[in-house]
Amino acid sequence: MKQIKPLTGIDLLQKVGELSKEAKFSKEEKAKACGYYTKTKNGVERVNMMKFLNALIDAEGIELDSSSEGQGRGGRSASYKISVQSNGNLLIGSAYTKKMGLESGDEFEITLGRKHIHLKQVGIMDESE
């Protein structure tokens, strides 16, 4: 296989899409076909998987190096979406509770709607009251 310049951006996404449709290529074969490999002095080809995966992340526009906005350690940021867990629970993460200034022991009254849940903090006057 002739060494090609590693693909990036939309070219990379298109090539990976084509390879995914054509046949069952391994991720290493896809990386190599997109130019993410080098040849050693002995002529052995080595696939650069990390560079390939990073290029895919960049091409998709996924930002992994976002700042933590002064919140100390990194962690997840609030996506404002949650999923029902396999045990039926809904978990509201600390990103939301920190943003709201909630503390351990704060209590809420739950009101169920057709497809929504309304939480009202116990002991806090609502603006409509």
Task: Walk me through what this model shows.
The protein starts with 8 loop residues before the first helix and ends in an 8-residue tail after the last strand. 31% of the residues lie in helices and 12% in strands. It has four helices and four strands; from the N terminus they run ααββααββ. The radius of gyration is 24 Å and the shape is elongated. It has a two-stranded antiparallel ribbon. With 129 residues, the protein is of the alpha+beta class. This is SpoVT-AbrB domain-containing protein.
Features:
two-stranded antiparallel sheet, SpoVT-AbrB domain-containing protein, 4 helices, AbrB-like, alpha+beta, 31% helix, 129 residues, SpoVT-AbrB_dom
Average residue-wise pLDDT:
81
Strand and helix order: HHEEHHEE
Strand content: 5-15%
* Whole-angstrom Rg: 24 Å
Strand order of the largest sheet: 1-2
Write down the overall geometry.
elongated
